[in-house]
Amino acid sequence: MFTIELPWVVAGLIGIGLTLYVILAGADFGGGVWDLLAFGPRKDAQREAIARAMGPVWEANHVWLIFVIVLLFTAFPPAFAAICTALAIPLTLVTVGIVLRGASFVFRAHAASLVRTQKAFGWIFGATSLITPVFLGMCVGALGSGNIRFNSQGHLLSDFFSTWLSPFPLLIGVLALCLCAFLAAIYLTLETEGEVREDFRERAVFSGVVTALIATITLPVTLDGAPALWRELAWGRATPLVLATVFLGLVAMLGAFFRRYRLARLATIAEVATIVWGWAVAQAPALVVPDITIRSAAAPDSALGPQLVALAIGSVILLPSLWLLLKVFKGQNPAAN
User: Which H or E element spans position 9?
Assistant: First the structure.
């Protein structure tokens, strides 16, 4: 008889939260990257377009990161403790990056009359947008590498540096950065018009090619850096999702190249979803490869059941609120028509 295992339900919800965070907040990080790298005669218009696109909704996207953290903490406390211990340094840098990025974005907007101050905050905003997704990607790479080891009592056996500073996590960090830049450029083609739209179209095609190259370089490194993941990605249950990612990435780049911007956006969103779920399927059932699994780290059902009920009640408020936010601030975008 088929039975529903609550730990897997919660793990699935974490996967959904991560997918939404990458799709939404990933584009915000990428917007900061293009803000930092803005050049040419229209660089001010590019930065203005980025700020206009991000301004109304960007902070709301961190709801999904909070959602993931709370679920991980309450549903899989041993995994949460292990991750925060083993990856304390990069996670601290991620937190600092998110805080500095948000503060500098706001301060820059209110420093229009102070040119030097505005430039300084703009640089901080761009630099933290560049660095933060790299460290996030490195954390994900470290979790799948199999280099974070614990003994039977749950004590960390690995050191605090080599697990996330090895080649595989570093490449995953760079790949995460490139993906964020690609996401942002694709989204901005539907937020802009005229020559500025062409600027972001070119950036979308360029960043898409770079993302594909980094992904290709990462594949052979995965064989040695994360052998358990490699088996599932190359010849296992995650292979169909890998193939779907390749196809969708190609569709997204071709859509941008031929100015089919809506198609490019839909394909990019689907591509990100297949990347996140391809990784999740390949790594399952491990939360931290290889020692901590979904079942071994799960809280008892007596705790998970009420948690799911609370999530259902909260979603009745959260989801309509987010829909209204997007409807009010993003629904009347003339460039998207």
Answer: helix 6-36
Q: How far apart are CA 267 and CA 189, in angstroms?
A: 14
The pLDDT confidence band at residue 336, using thresholds 50, 70 and 90, is very low
Structural domains of the chain, with CATH:
6-301 (1.20.1630)
Pair of tokens at residue 249: 């990435």
Sign of CA dihedral 182, 333, 38, 197: positive
Predicted TM-score (pTM) of this structure: 0.93
The rounded distance, in Å, linking the Cα atoms of 40 and 78 is 50
Cβ(208)–Cβ(127) below 8 Å: no
Q: Which residues of 26-35 are buried (b: 16+ CB within 10 A; e: fewer)?
A: bbbbbbbbbb
Cα(71)–Cα(57) distance, integer angstroms: 23
Single-letter code of the amino acid located at 240: P
* Average pLDDT for 102-118: 81
Confidence (pLDDT) at 58? 66
Share of the chain above pLDDT 90, in %: 75
Classify the phi-psi angles of 141: left when phi > 0, otherwise alpha if psi is within -120 to 50, otherwise beta. Answer: alpha
Q: What is the mean pLDDT of the chain?
A: 91
What is 81-149 written as a DSSP string? HHHHHHTHHHHHHHHHHHHHHHHHHHHHHT-TT-HHHHHHHHHHHHHHHHHHHHHHHHHHHHHHHS---
Cis peptide before 56 (omega within 30 of 0): no
Half-sphere exposure of 257 (CA within 13 A, CB side): 11
Is 117:106 a contact under the CB 8 Å cutoff? Answer: no
